[in-house]
Specification:
It is a single chain. The protein is an all-alpha fold. It has a single domain, classed as Fido-like domain (Fic-like fold). It has six helices and no strands. The chain is globular and about 50 Å long. 33% of the residues are buried. About 14% of the residues have low confidence.
Length: 201
C-alpha cells in the first residue's frame, strides 16, 4: 500500500492490520479519516470547558480519549501497545508509568506549580511514555490542552499545519534532549487560542 514514509518525530506506520476501513489506500486518505475522528474529540473537550466527570485524568480515561480520537479508524485505539517502539516505555512499564504521571499531575497544583509548567510536564511525560501504537503525539497534545481548558487556561496553539498537507511541522518537543523539552514547550503557550490542528504522530 502506498503509505508515505514517516517524517522526523513520527512513529513509523509498520502495521495496518488494525485499519477498520479497507478502502483507505494512501497516507492522505488515512490522514483525512483520522482528522475527522480527532475533530469530534476536539469539539467534545475543547468547544467549552469540560466537566471533571467527563475528563477524569486517570489511566482509564486517557485510554478512552485515545479511542475517541482514533477508534473510528483503528481497531487498537485506546489499548496500550504490547510491542516495543523506537521510543517510549517498555510495554510492561506503560501502565505503571502512566499511573505515576497522572498521580504527579494531580499533586502539582497543591505545590503551586504554574499551569504552563504543569502543561509542559504533562506533555513531555505522555510523549516520553508513548503508550499507544500510533497517534501518541496528537493524543498528548490534546491531553495537554484538555488539562489547560479544565483549569480555565487557553489551549496551546501547536506550531504545525493541517493534517494531510504537503508540509508537516511536528511538535518541536521531539527534536531536543529530554532535559530541555519541558522548558522549550513553554514558548508555545502564550499564542492566542485556535482549534488545535494535527500532523501524523
Amino acid at each position: 500500500m502506498p503509505f508515505d514514509p514517516p517524517i522526523a518525530g513520527q512513529t513509523p506506520l509498520d502495521d495496518i492490520s488494525g485499519l477498520r476501513d479497507r478502502s483507505i489506500k494512501t497516507t492522505s486518505q488515512l490522514n483525512a479519516a483520522e482528522a475527522e475522528n480527532i475533530r469530534k474529540a476536539v469539539l467534545k473537550y475543547l468547544a467549552s470547558k469540560p466537566a471533571k466527570r467527563s475528563a477524569k485524568f486517570d489511566v482509564t480515561w486517557t485510554k478512552k480519549l485515545h479511542k475517541e480520537m482514533f477508534g473510528k479508524v483503528w481497531a487498537w485505539a485506546g489499548s496500550f501497545r504490547t510491542t516495543q517502539l523506537n521510543i517510549g516505555s517498555q510495554p510492561y512499564e506503560i501502565e505503571t508509568h502512566m499511573h505515576a504521571l497522572l498521580d504527579d499531575l494531580h499533586q502539582w497544583p497543591t505545590f503551586g506549580m504554574p499551569m504552563i509548567e504543569q502543561a509542559a510536564r504533562l506533555h513531555h511525560g505522555a510523549v516520553k511514555i508513548h503508550p499507544f501504537l500510533n497517534g501518541n503525539g496528537r493524543w498528548a497534545r490534546l491531553l495537554t490542552n484538555i488539562w489547560l481548558k479544565l483549569n480555565d487556561q487557553q489551549p496551546i496553539l501547536w506550531p504545525e499545519q493541517t493534517i494531510g498537507s504537503t508540509k508537516h511541522h511536528p511538535s518541536p518537543i521531539h527534536h531536543h534532549p529530554p532535559s530541555r523539552r519541558p522548558s522549550r514547550l513553554r514558548r508555545f503557550h502564550p499564542t492566542p487560542p485556535r482549534t488545535p490542528i494535527t500532523t501524523r504522530d
